[in-house]
Amino acid sequence: MKKFIVESYELVMDSSKNPLRHLDLASQHYAMQVLAWMWSMVFSLSFLSIFYFHYVWLGHLLVLGGICFTVGVFRTAENVRRKLEVAQEGAVPKEAYSHASACTWKLDKEA
Fold first, then answer.
1. GO biological process annotations for this chain's record (predicted)?
2. Residue 106: helix, strand or coil by DSSP?
C-alpha cells in the first residue's frame, strides 16, 4: 500500500515522471501552479466553502509560494556549490555553459 501511495504521488508531483516532463521547466511550473489553484477551487466548492474561498486561495498561495522559494534557494545553493567545485578543478564542464556561450576563448592554447 505504501509503495502504491508513493508511486501515485510521484506520478503527479515528480516533474521527471509526470506527463509534463516533456515541457521546459518554466512551463512545467506554470502548469502545476494552474492545476494547484484549480484543485483548491474544486475542493472549496465541493465542501461548500465558497464564502471562505479567499482564505483557501491565500493559504494555497502562501504554501506553494513558500515551497517554490525553498526550491529556488536549494537550487541556487547547489549551483554555487557546483561552480566552486568547477573552479577548484580548473576545468569547466560543457554543461556549465549555456547555448549562448558555446564559443569559448581558450587562452592557454593560444598563448
1. proteolysis
2. coil
